[in-house]
Design the sequence.
């Protein structure tokens, strides 16, 4: 992933559900053009934040052994807008996980306001594919500290065991 549309995870229950935070700030350039005089978070970026939340949930459930790629958004409904100063809470619930991919139901809320809800589907692509070899989703999640891990909850290695001390520090 090149663009991060989540700031951090506040909850991740492996194989079940996840919640992430996105703080909407006028410092983000895209809000100056969408829309001048009435800045709102673009719906496409809310979908991307929901997809990153759900995709990381799905990838983590399989120890990041495959690249998880957004495949389809079969349903997404928008109920309200998010504006600068809002804190979006992205929630994803794992619905289906298979060898070839998986799906999540998602919602975005600001306080008591429902901003969006829907369903997102993902495909698993092999990490052995030479075209995808530069993608390291596991490193993205842990090296950018999106998941807060402590000594009681260490970063797993590729096989699912505790990571090396050097990897924990990176």
Sequence:
């Amino acid at each position: 992933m090149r663009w991060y549309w989540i700031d951090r995870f506040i909850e991740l229950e492996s194989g079940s559900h996840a919640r992430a935070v996105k703080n909407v700030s006028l410092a983000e350039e895209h809000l100056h053009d969408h829309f001048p005089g009435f800045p709102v978070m673009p719906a496409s970026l809310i979908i991307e934040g929901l997809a990153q939340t759900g995709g990381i949930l799905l990838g983590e459930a399989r120890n990041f052994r495959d690249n998880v790629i957004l495949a389809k958004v079969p349903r997404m409904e928008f109920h309200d807008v998010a504006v600068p100063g809002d804190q979006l809470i992205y929630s994803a619930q794992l619905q289906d996980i298979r060898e070839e991919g998986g799906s999540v139901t998602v919602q975005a809320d600001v306080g008591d306001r429902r901003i969006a809800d829907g369903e997102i589907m993902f495909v698993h692509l092999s990490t052995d594919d030479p075209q995808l070899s530069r993608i390291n989703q596991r490193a993205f999640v842990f090296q950018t500290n999106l998941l807060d891990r402590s000594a009681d909850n260490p970063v797993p290695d590729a096989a699912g065991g505790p990571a090396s001390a050097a990897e924990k520090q990176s």
